[in-house]
Amino acid sequence: MKNDPKKLLRYTPSERANHWLTAILFFLAALSGLSFFEPLYYPLTMLFAGGVWTRIIHPFLGVAMLISFAVMYAHFRQFNVMTPSDREWLSHVREMAGGDDRNMPEAGKFNGGQKLLFWLMTISMALLLLSGIVIWRAYFSPLFPLWLIRFSAVVHAAFGAIMIGLLLFHIYAAIWTKESIEAMLYGRVRRAWAKQHHPAWFREITGGGK
Amino acid sequence: MALQSLDITRRSATSTQPPDRRKTQEVVKLIDVSKCIGCKACQAACMEWNDTRDVIGANHGVLDNPMDLTAASWTVMRYSEVETDRGLEWLIRKDGCMHCSDPGCLKACPAPGAIVQYSNGIVDFHEESCIGCGYCIAGCPFNIPRLSKKDSKVYKCTLCSDRVAVGLEPACAKTCPTGAIVFGTKEDMYHHAEGRISDLKSRGFAKAGIYDAPGVGGTHVMYVLQHADKPELYHGLVKDPDISPLVSLWKGVAKPLVTMAFGAGILGAVMHYVTKGPNEVSEEIEKEFKDEK
Ligand code: HEM
Ligand code: SF4
User: Which of A74, A131, B90, B234 could form a disulfide bond with A155, CB atoms 3.0-4.6 angstroms apart?
Assistant: First the structure.
């Protein structure tokens, strides 16, 4: 990436590092977790040195991801407050997906879809932590009644699946919206890109100019 | 232990049929609670045959010893003093794995082959494939499997599958001095139980009956109870046990649904991309910023 002073800074180096660390830890937690979910995915344990090791390290990977996610949450929460315009954006999301953005209200640093995803991931992460502790047999399960362990197993499997679904969506949205992966990799975006995808943010940081 | 590796009806976390071309006879261990004198010979025989040695515990002022099943104590005698219409009664139940026809442990287990069910009905743990997650403990309706602190594998009664495989009866049945534990084909054991129940009825136990848990498809360890209408009297023996609906949801319908949803989602994304195309900066905006590249 050539350093072009006209480009706009979207993500600072620490934001990018935090994002990609969370992404790596998410992949490790999700692939190891999936292997217990259903026999079809059991071969994934081979990526983690076998079944026993996978069972041992999955919860630690989950907690590591949670910590990285929590840092990201604390930092990005301020940019993800839902506004009436975001709700309006969400109500037109079908047109957007169909390739017609004429009716879309102007998005700020993040659009309504990104904000919704942020909150859904936060909720999933919290529920995964709580339920994960209850089913963590080596250290915590003996502290809880059987009905709660069974209930937590269902919650953990369900939100594990939901979280993976959300992330698949997140990844697709990044592939679909050209240049957004570069934004998270290198930090800067073209002014045209900013005006196209996040017009309100573009105006805010350029003062309306070109 | 897998002495009967050709007679496997079900195998944990396995969606294809394990080898079970041959058919063996279904076996049952019948425990007649009314005949048990609580001598614990079966407990000792179990330790001896399976070569397990529990840590020496403390005396809690009751006969129960150890106080609970452990990874080294696969059967324990449960002593209950209860008041019934016949006055004070001392009920002694030999607790341990019931070898369900529809085993909740096997359903919950994520490790292929860690739990198997032989065609004779015995449910056996293969510790060498166990990953120590403890899901079987959550799946079991009878609170039986115990996770060992030493090797993080689960252990429970094997119904002496190694003895049964070579035509012997389980060690506990072999040793019981009063004949309270008998072992044989399912059919014979039902027949034997009927005789015991009519005898108990003739002696005033109107509610005597068999406990074989139809909710889990029947069990391969059955009790003859003096008060079959109140199994809870016997140290909280579960009335009408079944696989929890939560466990069925978790390790049943959820599995194919989630996989299909993932597949549909990924396919949907590919189709969206190739039919609608990417979301790029429009021509007008590109023109506006054409000095920048
Ligand atoms: C927040 C911290 C987390 C903790 C403490 C945790 C803990 C656990 C534990 C203890 C298990 C049982 C297997 C084992 O003992 O290793 C498990 C299973 C699982 N975890 Fe996690 N986990 C966490 C995060 C995650 C994340 C981020 C995902 C993926 C999105 C995930 C997905 C799964 C799945 C799919 C299973 C299998 C559930 C089933 O058996 O159906 N977990 N987790
Ligand atoms: S602890 Fe072992 S036997 Fe029990 S469910 Fe987990 S892998 Fe299966």
Answer: A131
DSSP-derived pairing of the beta strands B146-147 and B123-125: unpaired
Q: How far is it, in rounded angstroms, from Cα A149 to Cα A9?
A: 46
Span A63-115, pLDDT tens digits: 999 999 999 999 999 999 999 999 999 999 999 999 888 889 999 999 999 99
Mark yes or no for CB contact A150/B147 under 8 Å: no
pTM over 0.90: yes
**What ranges in B204-291 are assigned the alpha helix state H?**
245-248, 254-276, 283-288
Query: Domain count of chain A?
Result: 1
CATH number at residue A95: 1.20.950.20
Q: What is the ipTM of this complex?
A: 0.93
Domains of chain B: 3-232 (3.30.70.20)
Q: Where would I find the beta strands (DSSP E) of A8-145?
A: 8-9
Q: How far is CA A98 from CA A92, A95, A102, A178, B242, in A?
A: 10, 5, 11, 16, 49
For A169, half-sphere exposure in the C-beta direction (CA atoms, 13 angstrom radius) is: 15
pLDDT-based confidence at A2, cuts 50/70/90? low
Q: Which domain holds residue A108?
A: 8-206
Query: To test ligand 2's pocket by mutation, which of B154, B156, B157, B251 has the most ligand atoms within 8 angstroms of CB?
Result: B154
| pLDDT, tens digit, 9 for 90 and up, residues B57-109 | 899 999 999 999 999 999 999 999 999 988 999 999 999 999 999 999 999 99
Q: Are the CB atoms for B90 and B70 separated by under 8 Å?
A: no
With tokens 């396919």, the residue in question is B267
State the Cα–Cα distance between residues A141 and A146, nearest whole angstrom: 9
Residue A109: both structure tokens together? 């640093």
Distance from CA of A193 to the nearest CA of B (A): 6
Q: How many residues does chain B have?
A: 293
Residues 65-94 of A with CB under 8 A from B: none
Task: Flag whether A1 is in a domain.
Answer: no
